[in-house]
Amino acid sequence: MSNGATNRVIRKPLAISVIAAATVTILAVAAGFATGVIGPQRVDIARTAPDEILVGPEWLAERADEVTIIFYGGGFDGFAEGHIPGAAHLPREAAWDTIDGVQGMLPDPHVVAADLEEAGVSSDRPVVVYDDGNGLWASRLFWALEYLGHEQVHVLDGGATAWTEAGYELSTEISAPSRGRFEPAPRSQLIADREYVLDQLNNEQLTVLDTRSPDEFAGVDLRAERGGHIPGSRNIDWVNNLAESGGFKPIEELAELYREIIDGEHGSEAVTLCQTGVRGAHTYLVLRVLGEERVRVYDGSWAEWGNDADLPVDTL
Description:
The protein has 316 residues and is an alpha/beta fold.
């Protein structure tokens, strides 16, 4: 049985474009969250507490000189036009690449770590990840950092949009940060590959949570050689995680949305997936905020499963 971690192809580290740190002081506001545990077992690894994962603009402004800020998912041109002071731009391919023809795979851990170091990431310094607003790409990097062993990772709820709406300015200044020191320590219990999912299909203690749209899940919206879904999987579209503002819904609403998962009615472990492991990472973050510990991301997702004729598929 696979433990969920595959051998990752090594590529050359990316050049990272960054900007200098700046300090802004304001009163901190931290949101409080309810927590729970998925099933009877716990995953005893050091990582960010559920009620500290999502942070607001005020929290970040007060701690801007104490954390490493990473903008992830958007292009450099947009980053150069305006970004949170002190942030570094990390190219999408650093944690989302095409490997063996499968889009959305996480590269070799040491390659990812080298790119993160160029962006100023260190193992002993908290990281705050943000994107343009809905948290999709920030969630992908959040999961990647947790998988690689970073113990202090946060996401700016609402991203750059929330930052500006709170009255904070963006910067166009660009300069290189000091290189960080990050030694990856991959946690196999946070990632799944196709062998792991296939081996667990009849395991009632595992929930395969498909975060794609209902049409993709049904096989109507075809984005691979085959449409449909993994047999036995459940479908909760990732867009249900979003508030009207574009950030994450309040904790109470998310808890209700995933009530059966939280209560362990569908098993004690969850694997999230989508098309290329980005929407799945968004739901991974939500489950982490809800206190769920036994959650993995299947980064190959439907881009891999749907294009492999040897793997089983169901349609509606």
